Amino acid sequence: MVTVPMDRWADWIDEGDLPGDPWGDGDAGRDGWYDFYLGGRLPDIAPGERVYIVAHSRLRGYAPLVWVDRAIGSLVRQGGAVAVTIPESIRGFRGWRYRWWQRADESPFPQWRGLP
Questions:
Q1: 69 near 26, Cβ under 8 Å?
Q2: Which of 2, 14, 48, 49 is most buried per CB count within 10 Å?
Q3: CA 42, CA 50: separation in Å to the nearest integer?
């Protein structure tokens, strides 16, 4: 799980390949991949696992991990994002955290773009 800072939320949305978008619809960096730079220790995560996104104190969804780029310290995704949330607030944080809730607690979040 990672946090998109409040002042970067609009920029992050503008990148594209968001929930409901066709793959490759955004302004991706290298060859259609998106990097989420962590700048520190990397999580124990494997391709295909979910990278959850938190913004404005809410879980907004996840994207499948394509790979961990250890050379630059980033988590890399392509399309396939899914908008989900849980019924609790999540305070923003630096770096990453592991998911503590059960997947059964997740529900669709069609208004994921909205702010509190």
A1: no
A2: 2
A3: 14
